[in-house]
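S.,

Sequence below, as promised.
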Amino acid sequence: MSDFLPTYVEVATQIEALVLSVDPSELHGSLCALRCGAPPRTNWLAEAMSDEHLAPPLPGSPLARLDAATVAQLAAADFGLELLLPEDAAPVSERGEALVAWCRGFLGGVGLAGLHGALAEETREALVDLARIAESEVSYDDPEADEEALAELEEFVRVAALLVHGDCLAAQDRRRLH
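The prediction came back faster than expected:
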């Protein structure tokens, strides 16, 4: 199982082939939230898309690789979660919009998975911040400053997702002990 995400373009191509109406970053945000909770999802794609008739991703496909890499990254001790965003060479505006979409997907996935009750106050506050990002309309006036701000936001979003994952693991451990 590889810890490397497929590229944004590979995922976008498969989404288009499956005629799904979702942004690759938004779908990955949903997947990350769904994989934070328990029980393990057998068809995360159907759950993320709210379509029970949607078949699971085929083994080896970009969406299956996206899932495998996400699960591996969330389980890794090095906190190496990557967000599926356009490549660094893409315009900052495109990457910024993808980060906003990732946040929307993650928040939707938190709701779909019913994770809110398992979260500590600090983590719920981070979700409020993610909601602010998700509803943002970002302007891009200073490319150099925008690059720096985007990198900081991306790191915040990544850490917030890892906080949710950690809280869900702690909640599962508490349930096992009782």
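The radius of gyration is 16 Å.

Coffee later?
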